Amino acid sequence: MRNFSSDKLYNLQKNPNKIRNICILAHVDHGKTTLADSLVATNGIISAKMAGKLRYMDSRKDEQERGITMKSSSIALLHNLGEEDYMINLIDSPGHVDFSSEVSTAVRLCDGAIVIVDVVEGVCPQTKVALRQAWLENIRPVLVLNKIDRLIMEKQMSPLDAYVYLTQILEQVNAVMGEYFTMEVLGRSDVNKMENTEPNNEDSLYNWSTGLEDEDDSNLYFSPDHGNVVFASAIDGWGFGVEDFAKLYASKLGVSKTVLNKTLWGDYYLQSKTKRVMKGAMEKAKKPLFVQFVLENLWSVYNAIVVRRDKEKLTKIVESLNIKLTARDLRHTDGKVQLQAVCSQWMPLARTVLDMICKKLPSPCEMTEEKVEKLICSSTERFDNLPSETQKLKSAFLNCCGSEQSPLIVFISKMFPVERKHLPQNRPKQLTLEEINQRREQAKQRHIEKLNQDINGHPLSTMIPDANSSNLVAEKYTRENVDESPKEEHEEVFIAFARVFSGILKKGQEVYVLGPKHNPLVALERLRQGEEVDTRATVKDLKSGYYITKIVVNHLYMLMGRELESLEEVSAGNIVGIGGLDDHVLKTATLSTTVACPSFTELTLMVVPILRVAIEPVHPQDMATLTKGLRLLNQADACVQVIIQETGEHVLVTAGEVHLQRCLDDLKERYAKVEINVSEPIVPFRETVIEPPTVDMVNESIQDQGPSVKKTDAQDESTRNGVVTMWTANKQSMIKIRAAPLPAEITTLLETSSLLFKVLDKQFKVKSVSVQAVDEEYKVTNSLTELELSEKAKSNLTEKTLQAIEDLKKKLEVMFKEAGPEWDGAVDQMWSVGPRRCGANILLNRVSNYKRPPMWALIQTGNSPYLEYDSSFINGFQMATLAGPLCEEPMMGVCFIIEEWIILDKPLADVLTETQQPYGPFSGQIMSVVKEGCRRAFQVQPQRLMMAMYSCNIQANAEVLGKMYAVLGRRHGRVLHGDVVEGSATFNITAVLPVVESFSFAPEIRKQTSGLASPQLVFSHWEVLDIDPFWTPNTEEEYLHYGEKADSGNTARKYMEVVRRRKGLAVEEKTPLLHSSNRDSIILMRLGWTLLDSVKRLLDFCEYQRLHK
């Protein structure tokens, strides 16, 4: 039970200055949930002795079984600092890489974060991800260096060695923060230089300063003397900051507390004679203050209680620290229990961390302008281009005002499921004594009436009561009462996980639900035109281009970990649960009382969902139930994707194996509750072309051999030197296309710049500009600011975005120039990129009679037929790159060069009407012929598959490295590098592993290494599988090495055929030819079987004749 009343929390909700919204971030198994248990125990919700064992914030069954957190959950805590009370909304988030989307939903609602680092494992990959998410969301972190007890018990370090080791860990964390800080400052300085550069002034000097010297980074780094670092052991229940020991030793040493705060951590020592704090402890071989007064005392406590188990020493420690132990703790035989009892009173972890939260982390009222603009305006657009009504809302964010006059602004980061019976309004209420007596009398009356009815319905002989008859009547009555009792509801309902940024959210209040694509400019214009929002419409009822619904808020909840508490209203600055939004919010949304409020920017997801499976019900009649369950699963998980393919197949896309297993369990047990069949994991591939290889499969030089390609219709008379000539069906247009592989650096740059291409596609719209001569040569300018963009398009983009586009263009120019003379002028010839206008394939325009502007500039329209069918040409290219010829997977790293495009003067399509055209509209013919031409040009070149690759980070002990390398080798993995963790026998190994070979990798490696190696898999990049899918042995060496069939070595063909079979495409399967000796043996065996069968039939016939004589 809580040790305070809920009224205190309700009152604190109205004072945002006393509220702290924080989340716990860390790598997996670094102690997040154990720390959360310690903090929860301070409010009396759980016992302090159960902290770290109960895992209170992990409410799911699979979370308890696996021992990892899978979802972020919030709880409201009360903390007293001095004479003031604070309300702390604590969110515990997962550390496993598969559930990093849950971290994103938590970080968006917070103002601060607790970053936990295991001092033995150090800064791990997910630690860096956590720090990056905190940096991107502009929230202030504090640091907890956890598991210091492992340095004492496992590593058996001396206090001085531990101090040096802790300084190194702290430097690693600060190095990550410094990297993010430097990247941001350099990005801002580039934008400022672009704004201030005067190209016409030849005498101006270039400013070589980076801007780092002018930036204030005093509050950026973690340092114990700043009060933002806590040293802790969450499992033993203790933690401290240097301020705690500064208070203790200030009076004993006669040194001021302020001086000790600054010198207790660092290269300082105490001069014993003068009792002065001096600098240069390491140089003079002196013990630093932190070692002498902190770590040595801590080491001595562990040594006395846990190692030597000295009862007398324990008694002295208890007396000197002025703490009390129960007789049971003093008699306990487990030293760990005694240690927890001592340290939890000497240096209580929860109090230290909560004090740091209240002192160092900001309240909702301290939100910065930069964070507000990031929340409501995309990084590619300018804030001052938003409508004036929207810009005025900025002050509402900054003031965090909870008054009636302030506009209501609420952001929903996710929807989480709760069983209907667990809602506060559906819980059984405690009855008063009067109600209990009243119900007892009513039950007696019903029992008497029921008994009379049963007696009146029987003959007189059966009316004589006896013990058996009365028992039968009572049993019958009880059974009927049980049958008539209402059945429990197990239906899942969704609660919105939200934060109020401005105004007051009340029950019965009517608010707008703004979808993620809501545009305030369009919505305000529609309101001016008299359009109104339909109050009965839900998300599925909205028409295309409409993203607003209207609701009445019916239920508000305070999130208390595993429980919910009803609220009547919630003020600005609070985290809240909102019920009744199931049909209005899919994943995220914004609630407001005005449509001028923009939708919040998209969450920053650190993991790309890449693992796919196809799902179908075991019984076809359950298909509708499965579809509903998939919709609920999609709503409940921020990272999951549900795709219905053209074939009607339902595909589930997840982040990894653990995430997939959790989704399947939820689907079977919570949402659909039907039996399902799950396909083998579907792994995406990419298709590409390469330069003709110079060596064969056995590394022999290829001489006078053409590329090994599939013999298709592509090698006909229309193909010359890799150039494919295509005609439309009505013979009115001819196109010559050639495919070429893009350099790897350019492919990578295009892939990482997809967001900029999306911005270009959105902003650079086709404008009708009258021109005198369309065929006039177009001159491309050298600066983005000189491009023929509309003023509106330029003003909508931020200077940072314009600079990024300009940098992208310059990088492409340099890379094309380095690639060779065949790529000269390629940047100015770029027609489009694909697929989806943001992919890693390029369409180049080298048509002599069509000088269109490049994709960096606006296209001019006129009377030219080429301009009329320009969009059809691009659409054909997009369709071709979306589904390649190998196995209908998207292309990557391919450049299609248009050498010639001819349209006859008077196409037949222009003369006839659409119904008279025998081959369909001419634009459709152009689209079709471009698509087919790109596919044929692709097939002419050496074709390859590209595999998705995981970056695999493994922590393993030295004795199991060989077994770990063996597992990686069997799965075609490749080790990049491995470093030993300083001061331990643990290695950090970084490797790459094909996604298609990664299934059950983690269980296998744990099994082979007896649990001493734990991998973390994150999608990294795409890599070419350098095997021709259509390769067959040609040389004597290849026949000798691979044999006549060569089916064992062609991995690419195996992957390709698996994908083609899954998609229902044709697969060429050859019946294997047997060796002559094997054929003879099989023929003889078949003849023998035939002979034996004939003899058996003859014997059966003879036996039949004998029996019937």
From TrEMBL:
Tr-type G domain sequence ranges: 17-257
Entries under PROSITE patterns matching the protein: G_TR_2
CDD domains listed in its UniProt record: aeEF2_snRNP_like_IV, eEF2_snRNP_like_C, EF2, EF2_II, EF2_snRNP_III
Superkingdom field: Eukaryota
Keyword set, alphabetical order: GTP-binding, Nucleotide-binding
Protein name, per record: Tr-type G domain-containing protein
Organism: Timema podura
